[in-house]
Design a protein that fits this description.
Order of helices and strands: HHHHHHHHHHHHHHHHHHHH
Distance between the termini: 13 Å
Structural class: mainly alpha
Strand content: under 5%
Largest sheet: none
Radius of gyration: 24 Å
Length: 546
């Protein structure tokens, strides 16, 4: 079976991520208009229970399957490759059923404790089957990713996104247009909003089923491997299960620990700003004006940070993370063959490609944060001003996070999935201490959570890179090709800043289009003029998976 180049695999997943993000916006915006704030609260309650379970199970599952498949495929053990798939299917079908049962059984207690309204249980229960379908789809995605074939993952994600938009919006709209008929099946006095939210969640669940259905038809044509093949060293089912969990659990825990940064912000930000209102009211008034004296000010700051600044912050890492998915099977196969130099090249290439996107994106967001947030959230001037300042303090952390996620994939590929968890724990402690320290100082209180997040991810990147370089016997000089990208990004950011000032009198969309367009052109021109960078770029484009 012909494998894909590193760039091709990354580009396929990169394009899939862009499509998924666009369809996600196409789903959320009209759904919010349908359900309103209260209805979206019911919808969000279902995700509130599902996401931690997703992080603890499905997130690590595809990584575990991809890593094992890549190693056995690289060694030529085709029989073991298929055995991994069969074992993972059976094992995690059972895990998925247990998770679905857990969500269904605890829907009412969870709704009561979080939303203080058991009506949210309708939406939670509609989300329950998604855990089962998610586990099945994760096994198939990991299998093909391990074979260096990114098309099935990309297509299944697109299929799920399209099905979510169509089914979720149609089902929710149907509930509102057939209210009398629908309420006849529910106890008297049941409000329509929880049912409409549950219908939207059912559309999300059906989209995961569509992803599994895609793999069913995809597998009818075979997996591209030889039909008759023998393995010189057959793996037992017990050893396969142990190996799957040994890789999956650290990855899942790492994903869970990463979510702790959001929990820390939730537990500290509003409390700290409430304390500042009582002890530093004059300083807050001088910085924020009359709004700082309102009782809702702490909630306003936290909402602007978590709902606006972090939303924009997460856009770039969610896209560059696709490079990590592509490099994982590369690293696993090369490491299984004892080819350290190949892993070194993969490390250099994935960091180069990540820097190619992350550096100019972070600079552009820093320059244009006010304008971008105002365009995305019109009519929320105060919240946008707070979110813009927070976003600027988050952007160094965004760059480090973009670099760190592909490094985690390499560690997982070479059998050290335990290290990300070990490194994350002290970094989360830094995040907690940073929040407690910075948020108590009125002069930098608005930057506090962002600064501590940036310090957290900077430390995480440094620890991970140092560990990888030591294991691979690689010098930091191997990262020199990234330096010209820093120069090109600086020129691009300067261009965006100048055009923003020159076109400030124009309508906001026109100003942003001119600023971003000129910055992109400048970035491309500078890259082409830097001969060494251009050569390095061509080398990255030609790198093949080994």
């Amino acid at each position: 079976m012909k494998t894909q180049t590193f760039l091709k695999g990354s580009f396929i997943l990169f394009l899939s991520a862009l499509i998924t993000k666009a369809l996600g916006a196409l789903f959320k915006i009209p759904l919010t208009m349908l359900l309103g704030g209260v209805g979206m609260g019911y919808f969000g309650c279902a995700y509130g229970l599902f996401l931690p379970i997703y992080a603890l199970s499905i997130t690590g599952l595809s990584t575990a399957v991809a890593s094992l498949v890549a190693k056995e495929h690289g060694a030529g053990h085709i029989q073991n490759v298929r055995k991994i798939r069969r074992t993972a299917r059976l094992l995690f079908a059972g895990v998925g059923l247990l998770l679905s049962g857990f969500i269904w059984l605890f829907a009412v207690p969870f709704a009561r404790s979080t939303a203080a309204d058991t009506s949210a249980a309708y939406a939670i229960r509609m989300m329950a089957p998604a855990a089962f379908f998610g586990c099945l789809a994760a096994v198939e995605r990991g299998y093909y990713e391990g074979l260096c074939n990114m098309y099935p993952t990309a297509i299944s994600q697109a299929v799920e996104s399209i099905a979510k938009v169509v089914c979720g919006l149609l089902f929710s709209h149907y509930i509102f247009t057939h209210e009398t008929q629908v309420l006849a099946y529910f106890p008297a006095g049941t409000p329509i909003l929880p049912i409409a939210a549950a219908a939207a969640v059912l559309g999300v669940t059906l989209s995961t089923a569509c992803g599994v259905l895609y793999f069913f038809f995809r597998n009818l044509g075979g997996d591209g491997l030889p039909k008759a093949a023998s393995s010189s060293a057959s793996l037992s089912i017990g050893s396969l299960m142990r190996s799957l969990f040994q890789i999956m659990l650290p990855v899942a825990l790492g994903s869970f620990v990463t979510n702790l940064t959001s929990l820390i912000d939730l537990c500290t930000m509003m409390r700290c700003f409430d304390h500042l209102q009582q002890t530093q009211a004059a300083a807050l008034f001088q910085k924020f004006g009359a709004v700082a004296a309102e009782s809702t000010f702490p909630a306003l700051v936290y909402g602007a940070f978590s709902g606006m600044a972090l939303t924009v912050f997460n856009l770039v890492p969610s896209v560059t993370n696709m490079f990590g998915k592509s490099v994982l099977p590369c690293a696993a196969q090369s490491w299984a063959k004892g080819q350290k130099e190949a892993v070194q090249k993969q490390l250099q290439s994935v960091l180069f490609l990540t820097a190619l996107i992350a550096l100019p994106a972070a600079g552009g967001l820093f320059c244009l944060s006010d304008s971008i947030l105002t365009l995305l959230y019109p009519g929320q001037e105060t919240a946008c001003r707070i979110a813009a300042e927070s976003l600027r303090s988050l952007l160094p952390g965004m760059v480090f996070l973009c670099f760190t996620m592909p490094l985690f994939s390499i560690l997982q590929g070479i059998g050290r999935a335990d290290l990300p968890v070990k490194y994350m724990l002290p970094c989360v402690a830094v995040k907690l201490l940073g929040n407690i320290l910075f948020l108590q100082i009125p002069a930098c209180s608005l930057l506090g959570a962002g600064l501590s997040t940036s310090l957290c991810y900077a430390l995480l990147f440094g620890m991970t890179l140092f560990s990888l370089c030591r294991m691979l016997g690689m010098s930091l000089r191997g990262l020199k090709p990234i330096l010209p990208l820093c120069y090109a990004a600086t020129m691009s950011i300067t261009t965006a800043y100048l055009f923003r000032n020159l076109t400030r009198a124009m309508p906001l969309p026109v100003m942003l289009l001119c600023s971003v367009g000129s910055a992109v052109v400048m970035y491309g021109v500078v890259l082409l003029l830097l001969e060494k960078t251009a050569n390095r770029l061509r080398e990255g484009l030609c790198l093949r998976m080994v």
